[in-house]
Sequence to fold (400 residues):
Amino acid sequence: MTSRISARISSITESATLAVDAKAKALKAAGRPVIGFGAGEPDFPTPDYIVEAAVAACRVPAMHRYTPAGGLPELKEAIAAKTLRDSGYAVTAAQVLVTNGGKQALYNAFATLLDPGDEAILPAPYWTTYPEAIRLAGGVPVEVMTDETSGYRATVAQLEAARTSRTKVLVFVSPSNPTGAVYSPAEVKAIGEWALANGIWVITDEIYEHLVYGDAEFSSMPVLVPGLADTCIVVNGVAKTYAMTGWRVGWLIGPADVIKAATNLQSHATSNVSNVAQAAAIAAVSGDLAAVDEMKVAFDRRRTLIVAMLNEIDGVECPTPEGAFYVYPSVKALIGKSLRGKTISSSAELANIILDEAEVAVVPGEAFGTPGYLRLSYALGDADITEGVTRMQKLLSEAS
Fold:
């Protein structure tokens, strides 16, 4: 019997992070005091000046109509200017495609570059959407494993070992989701030079560019390796930097011919991004970074808090992340132990026990390609972090 669902769609899974977040919100709506560390979503409201730009746009009749599929010209210009200001990368508006969030930017990039059977090197742990978007485009994700001993950073030697005659793309993310790892400028340059020397495209996700802490430094690969510009796509968006996850505005930057092809795809898939959201994004990327800096101070404080509290739990080892707003502790020492009448058979099972018994939602490492870990977002309030991890401490102290 022919399947009702296509093989292409049957092969992908639901976003694990969104599934955990949805379950946590459903339990809260049912009256349970669940604390959710699942979704990477700042708890701050979108800054007022951005909201006001959207309100004003609602009253402009031209914003009630179709606009160019690739984005409002003024937003594309503003993104080009912001990219030069923030990372030193000089691009033109013709090299920018505005998308419905960073996920569509990634899908458009993979669909534009990959033919069936093409391989995409993907360092793990990875964000849950990357391998699925690669597969939807007909590509084959090739995982390169990293762990806490290397700061969750892949080396050129590891990437070279994964390269084959089918390799077309490297997915590069710094700062990283889910680990918070940040590659040094020297590491970024070395990887970029390796990709250039081997004719490999780089899709680099820079959505956490402003969220780096301590001595860590964000660097943009095509800036450090200018020769890579013709075979590099930069993905970014307003979601994390400006607390605009629900506005759904992202973009990709790349060679003009690739951007034109990706725009053709988007013209059939979705047409233009919401004009009101694009107006808000213009205000966001054109404004200063004062609101961003305020949020970063809070994230840095929460980072210190959550790492310290998690490391107090026997069997949990939590490295200090250098960027983004996630921690990725190892819970390998808890696997095989008993807890409240259940055996902790995996990090996925542990996450279920923590939700059921402590009413705390975390995402298991299985979702990111590396079992034995948990991901917790610290983009929620200090009080919730303290309460949530305290519950975990009390529960996990019973493991034996």
